[in-house]
Amino acid sequence: MEGQVTGREIILDIVGNMHQGLEPLLYTTLAPNIYDVYLHIDDYERLQGLFDKIAEDAKKALDEEIERLNGETWPWRILRNLPGLSKKAEHTYVRAGNGWFINFYKNTEEDAKTGEIVIESHFALPSTSRQGIGSMTKRIVTLRSGEQTRMLRKSYETTEENASASDSLTTEPARALARISYEDHRGSQVYSMTKNQIVIGRGGTGYWVDLRLHAPSDISREHIRLRRDESKGQFFIKDLSTFGTTVDGESIPKSVEIVNGEKQDKDVWVPLPSKARIGLADMVFLDFEAL
């Protein structure tokens, strides 16, 4: 039936997403090894019995594509040793982790359409030795709608870690910079802010948030950002929402405006008191406390 997703389309889109997520290093290029596939509930239920077979074929297709990409580099491994030719470093394509992982989920977003395929791939980049900096995760989100596939989002997310005073192999838990207490559909919750910048909102396919709220759609997928100035310890808040944000009952200026039909972030940050009540669309309230 026209508009229905096929297993073949899912497999081809996984391979296409892999190409979008390639991360070149000096001698190797890393390919994402984890793929989360989101389908409209109708497509999900229709194909659910085939997921194991689709995943099996997709892993085989990914292996073959890596082999093909490496095959394109083989002439240099011979020709680079011939007189008169420049020495070109041998370059190989490799999977970022041990094995391919392919997961299937229902796309529960209100604007999800039958026939659409959303794929989010992610993998951890090699960790840096810089003090206070942890691992970095690369995420690529692609959307297939009709005959076209486009990238929805590309992001690099850093997990900050406290540096130890010695070269001990023991990893200490990150120190909480602030505590956020709130209530959503799940009941009372407490979140510890351990990074200098976080995103808060409903999240969703293609929208990565640190603190995901289970709340009505009046709460934007990316509603606010909180940032801590590491040198001074001062906190700031940025409103990215549609229906507004308050701090201690007072509305704060929006950082996002619509220009020619597209959202533009003006990067407006507002100082946040060390203790404050943050209102999101007058529906969810966060009790913020710097530590």
Automatic annotation (TrEMBL):
Pfam families: FHA
InterPro entries registered for this protein in UniProt: FHA_dom (IPR000253), FhaA_N_sf (IPR042287), SMAD_FHA_dom_sf (IPR008984)
Annotated FHA domain residues: 198-252
PROSITE patterns: FHA_DOMAIN (PS50006)
Protein name, entry field: FHA domain-containing protein
Originating organism: Tectimicrobiota bacterium
